[in-house]
Write a structure and sequence with these properties.
Layout lengths: L5 E4 L4 E13 L2 E7 L6 E3 L2 E3 L11 E6 L4 H4 L2 E3 L2 E3 L6 E6 L1 E5 L4 E7 L5 H8 L5 E5 L3 E4 L6 E6 L4 H10 L6 E7 L15 E6 L5 H9 L8 E8 L4 H10 L7 E7 L8 H8 L4
Parallel strand pairs: 14-15, 14-17, 15-16, 17-18
Antiparallel strand pairs: 1-13, 2-3, 2-12, 3-11, 4-5, 6-9, 6-12, 7-8, 10-11
């Protein structure tokens, strides 16, 4: 029987938090620290909800934003056993991985890449103490295999929150071999490394598939049972996936590859494309 990845599911709850503070992690990464009563168990509109739980290092929550700024009109409906995504013309949603969850302090930390042009990056750039943010999730948490000898963590700048959380919390007590592609040396972060861990920083343009594949191929493969986790631009991960599955022949429960963002390719002007394709006289 084929092996499959295991997940723990969570109730889907709409939660409201507010900005407590904003920190500059690096010139390339901004951290927004959020807090609020909705991180604990609470009741809204007569419906009781459990406290926030995100035990997986790569869990993601769905931020709810609005193109016209009216977030309240963009909120989904909370049902007793889930969420109904009612139509909302200006709703925007973006998935983000918590960098840190501190329920004792009632805090949730989210890291945003600086200089991004998306709605979540724009929100983080303008975030001030007291600003509110609504989110849903996580829907589920990945359960890592228990018997492993090592793990490889691969990603670009957008994967640093998940990688950093893994190294802080250590859901597996095994050596971690980290590979991160960054567009600038200023994006490098201090990571909680232990004896036996390794980290490699590779300078590459965002979404550079060739650079990512070459760097992954250059990673030594330790002896024993291992696990590979990778997150980056979706198309840049395609050759990495082929390499891990076809050449290293990793089973499905020993690899997890997730596209964290999608690069938009510029389209050729229609007139030029038609002219280039037209046969000569």
């Amino acid at each position: 029987m084929a092996a499959h990845r295991a997940y723990t599911t969570h109730p889907l709850v709409l939660r409201r938090v507010t900005v407590r503070r904003v920190e500059e992690v690096t010139p390339r990464m901004r951290r927004v620290v959020l807090g609020g009563e909705d991180l604990a168990a609470f009741t809204r509109d007569g419906i009781g909800h459990p406290g926030f739980a995100a035990p997986g290092f790569d869990d993601h929550i769905k931020l709810i934003l609005a193109a016209d700024g009216d977030v309240r009109a963009a909120l989904p409906a909370q049902l007793p056993h889930g969420i109904e995504w009612t139509p909302a013309e200006h709703r925007l949603t973006r998935d983000y991985t918590p960098r840190r969850v501190d329920l004792d302090a009632g805090e949730l930390h989210l890291d945003f890449v600086v200089h991004g042009e998306g709605p979540a990056e724009s929100w983080s750039a303008a975030a001030r103490e007291g600003d509110e943010l609504w989110f849903v999730g996580p829907k589920s948490s990945l359960r890592l295999p228990e018997r492993l000898d090592w793990i490889q963590l691969v990603g670009d700048e957008t994967a640093l929150p998940a990688i950093g959380r893994f190294l802080d919390e250590r859901p597996l007590d095994v050596p971690a071999h980290v590979l991160v592609t960054v567009s600038d040396d200023a994006a490098r972060q201090e990571l909680a490394l232990r004896d036996g861990d390794t980290v490699t920083w590779v300078l590459a343009d965002p979404g550079d598939a060739a650079a990512l594949e070459a760097a992954v191929r250059a990673m030594p493969v330790p002896a024993g049972e291992g696990y590979v986790w990778a997150a980056a631009e979706s198309r840049a991960l395609l050759p990495v996936r082929r390499y891990l599955q076809r050449e290293r022949k990793l089973p499905k429960d020993r690899v997890n590859i997730t596209g964290y963002w999608h690069r938009e390719e510029p389209a050729a002007p229609e007139a030029e494309a038609t002219a280039d394709a037209a046969p000569g006289p």
